Amino acid sequence: MIVEDKQPCNISGNGLEIDGLSLTTLADRFGTPLYVTSERRLRENYRRLAEAFSSSKDGVKINYAVKANSNPAVISVLRQEGAGADVSSIGELLVARSAGLSPEKILFSANFAPKSELEYAALSGATLNFDSLDQFLKVADLCASSTVSFRINPGEGKGEYPGITTAGKDAKFGIPADRAAEAYARAKAAGVKKFGIHMMTGSNVLDETYLPRMTSILLEIASRICKGVALRFDFVDLGGGLGVPYHADQPPLDIVKVGRQVVDVFSSKCEEYELGNPVLTLEPGRYLVADTTVLLGRVNSIKRYEKVFIGTEVGMNQLLRPALYGAYHEVAIANRPGEMRSLKADLVGQICENTDILARDRNLPPVEEGDIVVFYDCGAYGYSMSNNYNGRPRAAEVIVSPQGRAHLTRQREDNSELTRGTIVPSHLLR
Ligand SMILES: Cc1ncc(COP(=O)(O)O)c(C=O)c1O
Asked: What pTM was computed for the model?
């Protein structure tokens, strides 16, 4: 496969483009570094996923995991398609609200939240998914008339990297399966009448058998709770984790197969365990947004010693995943599509860490200063993990409409951002 043709880009006479707009023109117009998102691809991803699970008797509820990409324009597109939101903090809750989502469409799943955050979330009208019994007890008095859910650690997890494996004995998330009944019993005793159950066991899973198998395990746990505590679940949330191919030659997840198998397991187990009709709920992040977005950065300068280092504006401050997990992102040069990849080089940023290597030993066209490097699959955990390390402002973000119009959705930070909120005490001003 030609790397440049990877979603959401294609090659045209003007170099690389997204939905009719040349990437170099976008870089000139909005400046760099720049995140560019295709609205077309975002809608396609949502529709493909919803369709894959549509055979579920009572439909599927999709709560988009805002942590993957919290740009309000992105959330708004998904809201228009029918998504709700999964949020992990008050900040994400407010962003979801600002994108037009009503509280009933929001699930709040925080990890080790203080009482004040849980109170805020409970009073907001969102549904709370508690990470532990202790978290529930902090706000039990506010929850009696709400639906209460607990995150279960089913004892095993799977993720592309250890850092994104979020269940199993070493995971800090959720309640172990054998302690879950106690949590629901305490919630019931506190007057709660409506319940959900949730798991989120890992991210970027391309194994098609995984989610169907975990669905079966979660429903078995749910059935033990139902019998032991005498309650019914209104929803069963299978979490996110659906993977995307970061390597151009990796096959995509067969989502139709995954959807069909999960729905089959879900309906047969609900029947077998007499669980009634809980709503099948998913909370994908990466699957919906990863391949909607590229990150553009200019080449600042090149070192040609024993190794070739191409220094760009995109470092671990703009795209953390390679430094954090050793994650792989395909790259191309926007103004040199289809040119022979005759150069082997590392693409690096400007940060003072030797983990600031975004792509190692890559075959590239003969790159020159001023060229525009394209990093693919940056829609998930890209901007949302970016930071100001080394005193560098964050990038701007743009969305391209299906009609090929570019809209700025987030302004580029300037240097004033770096001192905003800081105070130098008067005795230090002398
Ligand atoms: C609770 C929860 N739900 C959903 C997600 C989304 O996961 P993914 O992007 O793998 O779909 C995450 C990611 O960490 C999460 O923590």
From this structure: 0.97
